[in-house]
Write a structure and sequence with these properties.
Blueprint (H helix, E strand, L loop, with lengths): L12 E4 L9 H14 L8 H5 L4 H11 L6 H18 L7 H8 L5 E4 L4 H10 L8 E3 L12 H10 L6 E5 L2 H10 L2 E5 L5 H4 L4 E3 L5 H14 L3
Parallel strand pairs: 1-2, 1-4, 2-3, 4-5, 5-6
Helix pairs in contact: 1-4, 3-4, 5-10
């Protein structure tokens, strides 16, 4: 792991993805997808979980319907997917390792925002139950004017609301869909999760296996100490 691209840099804002980055909800999305497909007695093709990761839930519903050969069921599957996901999150909200500590450290030197493909009420509810919601000044999700990831809209909007330039902003992401969104917005990107392979890792400024990596904690803590409280 090398910090040469960000080790001496202090971002003017930090924008976090939610699912799989702050909240351990990717397992809930996977389970929700499985439940929906089972209800329709469909088996996903190999690699489906990776293709679905990071997609807006409406796009995921369309993907499931298309792969099942029943595109006319997209809206119905989307509704069931979201219902199952909400129930699973309510039953067991979990934060990712190191998420709370990194958020608290970054909040000392920069405004924070969340840019997510999930519905606002799901993001806010998940973060509230985890005790993280108050750390974020802005929550940005797709709407009629803001396109979902991999379009750059959610990240561009988050930077604007934080009052900073995208080039001065750090995005924290776990999926290729989100990485592409942040890159198109012109941000530096911290990728997190299991090693994605050289091709994906080369797209980001730094890849860590977990937000509780000691060197990442030292970097974030050092930014706050160097710049003083906000």
């Amino acid at each position: 792991m090398t910090f040469h691209r960000i080790h001496s840099w202090t971002p003017s804002a930090v924008v976090f993805d939610c699912d799989g980055t702050l909240m351990d909800t990717e397992c809930h999305w996977q389970d929700a997808r499985i439940l929906v497909l089972r209800e329709y007695e469909f088996e996903p093709a190999p690699g489906f979980a990776e293709r679905a990761k990071g997609l807006h839930y409406t796009e995921c519903g369309r993907l499931m319907a298309d792969e099942a050969g029943r595109p006319e069921l997209a809206a119905e599957m989307t509704g069931l997917l979201l219902a199952h996901f909400r129930a699973l999150v309510d039953e067991n909200p979990m934060t990712m390792p190191g998420a709370r500590q990194l958020v608290e450290s970054c909040a000392k030197f920069a405004p924070l925002a969340v840019a997510s493909n999930c519905p606002r009420e799901v993001v806010e509810s998940s973060l509230a139950r985890a005790g993280l919601l108050d750390s974020f000044e802005h929550i940005v999700v797709p709407d009629d004017e803001i396109r979902p990831k991999p379009h750059p809209d959610v990240y561009l909007t988050a930077a604007r609301l934080c009052g900073v330039e995208p080039a001065d902003t750090l995005a924290v992401e776990d999926s290729l869909t989100g990485i592409r969104s942040a890159m198109q917005a012109g941000m530096r990107v911290l990728g997190v999760g299991p090693w994605p392979g050289e091709q994906v890792a080369a797209l980001v400024d730094l890849w860590v296996r977990s937000l509780d990596e000691p060197e990442l904690s030292v970097w974030a803590g050092g930014r706050g100490a160097a710049n003083g409280p906000r």
